[in-house]
Design a protein that fits this description.
The protein is mainly α and about 90 residues long. Helix content is about 45%, strand content about 0%. It has 4 helices and no strands.
Length: about 90
């Protein structure tokens, strides 16, 4: 191996570099969305995933648009009232 073109990683080596990379995004202190598990048909899931990064956001947008069409004939509850049930 030729190490003549190697670059030293400042601040503690590879482990420290990986640690720094993991810190690029902080904890979500005031989440605007709630994590849930839902079951979708394989074709629906494949279509959204095939659309690339951000597919979960597009699923969310599609569901919001569907609700606006009057599908449930009710306005969307605010995040606060949805959690409290009122």
């Amino acid at each position: 191996m030729d190490w003549s073109k190697g670059v030293a990683t400042p601040g503690g080596g590879v482990a420290e570099t990986i640690s720094q990379l993991r810190r690029t995004r902080g904890k979500n202190k005031s989440p605007t969305k709630e994590q849930v598990a839902i079951r979708l048909d394989p074709g629906v899931l494949a279509a959204f995933r095939a659309s690339g990064r951000g597919w979960q956001t597009r699923v969310n947008t599609a569901l919001k648009e569907w609700l606006k069409t009057g599908a449930l004939a009710k306005p969307l509850p605010s995040a606060k009232s949805a959690k409290t049930g009122g």
